Amino acid sequence: MKNLTCFKAYDIRGRLPDELNTDIAWCIGRAMADYLKPNNIVVGGDIRLTSSELKHALADGLRSGGTNVTDIGLCGTEEIYFATSLLKVDGGVMVTASHNPMDYNGMKLVREQSKPISGDTGLLDIKKLAEQYYFDGKPEPVADLGEFKELSTLKPYIQHLFEYVDVANFKPLKLVVNAGNGAAGHVVNALETAFTQQNVPVEFVKVHNQPNGNFPNGIPNPLLPDNRDDTILAVKEHGADFGIAWDGDFDRCFLFDENGDFIEGYYIVGLLAEAFLQKHPESKIIHDPRLTWNTVDIVESNGGNAVQSKTGHAFIKERMRSEDAIYGGEMSAHHYFRDFAYCDSGMIPWLLVAELVSIKGQPLSELVKERMAAYPSPGEINRTVDDADKVIERVLAIYEKDAVGIDRTDGISLNMGNWRFNLRKSNTEPVIRLNLESRGDVALMKQKTEEVLALIEG
Predict the structure, then answer these.
(1) What are 409-418's pLDDT values in tens digits?
(2) Does the annotation count 98 as an active-site position?
(3) Which helix (H) or strand (E) is 91 found in, with range?
(4) What's the domain range around 392?
């Protein structure tokens, strides 16, 4: 069967050059042109060594189908979301493999208003056409080829980021910023300049800020504990107020407190939900089902409305739109904003946290300490399994009779009264993911984590 294996549930991701190459990129571009019939598409790419050639092949495919292409150059995924909405074009493509290994690359596709194109919303149709063109022969270019131009949208993007905070609130702050040699460096530099121009007392301690597709300091993925050391050391060495680290395309940001301790994304969701509800009372906040008690507690006690959505950016964005939610957060460090075309940003969250730290006059550790004690969690634990469905059923059989509530929004979530857990299988790899929390009982949280893991491991 003729099959392009680089097409995944939410995006395109494949090993070079067998799963993804310039020929396949051209076919994807032409397929997108023929399926969406767009007049204008914006494209950009991260710092991977193959991103530029894949982006230009993609652009050629789009143009051969009559689509005009605007290239915004080296950028992060959220800059494509921003540019698609800013320029009012018919869609956008970001060439990135985010935190995948060196020999991978990929693409994230959006249509007008930065709406995601995933398996349910056109990605499979584009795949079908791309396979036809790749395996059966490329179609002829249309008579009226699309035009190609380059344009920077960095200035309006930086201006937009500052709309989420009032810089007059900022106290003197020293922040460690670790771009991981990914795409975030140019935004860090532009923000630094903007802070200086506005006389805002924010000092950056830059770590691995220079973009480098060879990733001399490892693949930028701060979700892996091994990849956090450089940020932790810099926070301690420079006495920073907090630290920020990003993945390769900086659509996720990870925070470290003033002691260099990593803060789970779950507690940041609660922090940002509270910040938004204090500015916009009675708003809706979207959250995922993996860890929920802290978020729901904060949202409801601040007069907001907590709405649960299935995990994954396409589902969250869809729910954000349908509910017109002001903010949405996933514990995986994806944060979504209504005024950012309902899309995720890795830059807005830390700006909001910097403002919060300044306003409250408390260090970051204090802002999350109470919440971490109220709902302790070990964070997400992954285990490789042969049959995830069978494992989920086995665990369910043990606990369901004692559960006070069972939810199947995403995998299984069981409320056991004074503790709860979510167990779900990955969409992208043969692993099962466990998230567990308790009501203020660290010993119980640890005991139940070991108990459920023992069942998973069989």
Answers:
(1) 999 999 999 9
(2) yes
(3) strand 91-95
(4) 381-456
